[in-house]
Design goal:
With 117 residues, the protein is mainly α. The chain has two domains: 1-59, no CATH class; 65-117. It has four helices and no strands.
Length: 117
């Protein structure tokens, strides 16, 4: 089974914290584009749910600039952490590439340098 994580950082409108509805709309829109061939539990079938999404999501209110930067770094590092790529720059679906273009990160960010011994 292939599991891909989806991480986002949102700025919501003032007085609006309706993450649940937003995630539901994102999941529904994406799911409609895929054929329904995945295995589904009895519970998912009863609820009309696809087997491609986890039921829960984690939300966190960003406290300050340092907290924001740590979360962005985590999101960019995640494909490497899970072994999907060897370097952050190799994950084509990441906002990392936009950050490199804007000069926020160097292209070799988080790469280890191997020395010949």
């Amino acid at each position: 089974m292939l599991v891909i994580a989806l991480y986002t950082i949102w700025t919501l409108p003032p007085n609006d914290a309706d993450y649940k509805t937003r995630w539901a709309l994102i999941k529904a829109g994406f799911s409609r584009l895929l054929p329904s061939i995945e295995k589904k539990s009895t519970s998912r079938i009863k609820r009309g749910e696809r087997g491609i999404w986890q039921r829960r999501f984690w939300e966190h209110v960003i406290r300050d600039e340092n907290d924001f930067n740590r979360h962005v770094d985590y999101i960019h590092w995640n494909p490497v952490k899970h072994g999907w790529v060897k370097q952050v720059k190799d994950w084509p679906y990441s906002s990392f590439h936009n950050h490199v273009e804007q000069g926020i990160y160097p292209l070799n960010w988080a790469c280890t340098i191997e020395y010949n011994r």
